[in-house]
Every structure is written in C-alpha cells, then in structure tokens.
Amino acid sequence: MAQTTPNHTQTVSGWAAHDSSGEITPFIFKRRENGINDVTIKILYCGICHTDLHQARNDWGITMYPVVPGHEITGVVTKVGSNVKTFSVGDRVGVGCLAATCLECDFCKESQENYCEDLQFTYNGIFWDGSITYGGYSKMLVADHRYVVRIPENLPMDAAAPLLCAGVTVFSPLRDHDLHKTPGKKIGVVGLGGLGHVAVKFGKAFGHHVTVISTSPSKEKEAKDHLGADDFIVSTDDQQMQKGKRSLDFILNTVSAKHCLGPLLELLKVNGTMVVVGAPDQPFTLPSFPMIFGKRAVKGSVIGGMDETREMMELCGKHNITCDIELTSPDKINQALDRVAKNDVRYRFVIDIANAPAATVDDDQICSNL
Length: 370
Ligand SMILES: [Zn+2]
Ligand SMILES: [Zn+2]
Hints:
The chain is built from 12 helices and 17 strands. α4 crosses α5. 24% of the residues lie in helices and 26% in strands. The chain is an alpha/beta fold. It has 2 domains: 203 residues, Quinone Oxidoreductase, Chain A, domain 1; 135 residues, NAD(P)-binding Rossmann-like Domain (Rossmann fold, 3-Layer(aba) Sandwich). Bound molecules: zinc ion (2 copies). One zinc ion binds next to loops. Its cofactor is Zn(2+).
C-alpha cells in the first residue's frame, strides 16, 4: 500500500515492483514538499545496480512494496530550500545510496555516513519523517542536500550515473589505502563487471600497475585494449595463478558469486590486503594458511561517505572517468533486469528517464496509489 504521509503532496510518475515477481510497472506516487534542507531534482538518468534486482525480487526478505528502485541518479536541480547554500537551480547533480543518516554519531561527523547505524537508503528506507523512500526509477526526487553531489561539467550525465554507487564502492577502498595518491603499486581487480571495470579505470588514472583476475579468458582483450589493464590472470588456470604468486600489493575483489578466497590471497605479497566489495549470498571459503603464512588481511567495504563521493566525482572530472553503459528506457527495465541477473551487460544499464514519457497507469491503480 502506498504511504499517506502529510506534506507528501507532490505527484510523481515512476516505475515500481509490487511483489516478489520483481516485475517493474508504471507507478504514480507522492513525494514530500521541498523542505528547507532539500533540493528537488528533475531526474535525467538512473543506473541499474545489482541491488535493484535483489530488492525488486525481495531476495533479502526486506523489501517494502511497492518499491521504486534506483540509487545511481543524475539530474538537474529545480528547487532549493532556504538552508541550502551549496546548490542552485540548474545545477547538475547526483544522488547515490544515502537518503538520511543520524548526523550525530562519530561516523556521520567524520563523513563516513555509510557506516552510520541509522543510515537510510535512497529507496526501501525510512526517511526522518517516517515515510518509505522511493528511488530514482522516477521523474523527480526530493533529496536532503547533504546527500547530493555535483557532477563535473565535462562528464556526460548518463555515463556518470553509475559512479554514484558502483564508482564510489570501488573508489572508497582505494582511497582508504591511499592508493589515490601513492602511484606505482601493483593492484589486482577480481571480476570485470560494473564495479571491476571502473576499478581498472581508477587504478590506471592513479598511476598503478593493474592486473585483472577473471574466470573468463575472453575478457583479456577488452581488459587490456579497452580499459588499459597491464596484466590479466585467468583464475582457473593454475599455471597463471602460480606465476602470479606474491606479486600484488592490493586486491579489490568485486565478485558477487560464491568462491574461495585462498588462491586469490596467494597473489598478494606478504602483508597485502584484499578488500571485498562483492556480496555473494553464500559465505566465502577462507582457508587460514594463505592469511597466516603471508600476514595477509581480508576486509570489507560498503559504498562511501559523502565527502569521498564528492572527491571521487572531482577526480572523475579531472581524469575523465565514467562508466561504460548501455542506455535503456523505462519500458525495457524488466528485460534489462533479466540481463543483469545473467551478468549480460557491458558494464552497466542506465535508464534514460529524461526522454521517457511520464508513466501512465489505469484509473483503478491511481486511486489505490494516491
Ligand atoms: Zn548500487
Ligand atoms: Zn550517524
């Protein structure tokens, strides 16, 4: 059932899943009035993240239907609240995964809002006013300005959209290990998908030697010729894995399928670190010997804080980094989600919201939604 929160008076057209079939259909709903800390954004583009698929289909058992997915949003500011000094009407902006955090804990104070215990997501979250948040598969968004970032003028708004989730997810661990400012390291990127391909671009832009590690030999040419990777290891090829032992300073593991971390850890030098950003629904296999006999560490990381999202965007502007995308339209979201489920996309779908007609639904549905 749609929400009926006071002040939610703006009618918006969007696209939602209504049950665990995950099928996305047109949906008319309400957003809050633009508050004093808010900006209203006319959405131009929204990326399709793997998370959208999980949430639409209730894979994690936490979906509140109807759900309007989308947390890789770019658009133009159309309204600003009286407290907002950092944005003006007409600004090109982006919104990622965060809609609200507590603003008071140590993590919020240090702009690591992504680790706030009270963080609420851009969709399927609960905003400060008690309303359920609706995401970027829609024509318009009202967002608190503290969770909004500027998109550099030289970046196209469609290919910049996935930077808001995929981009910052791989940037944050690189930054955390000072790899954005200490060039010349040997970095491994496991998995060449939506996350991995941006990680390779960052690695090269920051002056590192980048090795892609993948189960698919067919990706070698693309990794090297198109993305600029220096080396490629087929993880199912024992000889190649042997040759790569103790060669890497740092590994970013983007794979979201169940796998064993042991052979990958062997690729790290002594004292090296692997950061895991993929989220398999089954536990990893983690043998102790490669950790103990190489003093190696395995860590996790989730998206990024707002300051580092801003820093990432500036660096993307400076180095001209965007995602490689396939543009799609709202009426083809279901086909796109099916292909995302099969990892059949290079490397991210982005929905062209700007050029789509407003969602239309039949009268019955409008009544029950409003
Ligand atoms: Zn995402
Ligand atoms: Zn907090």
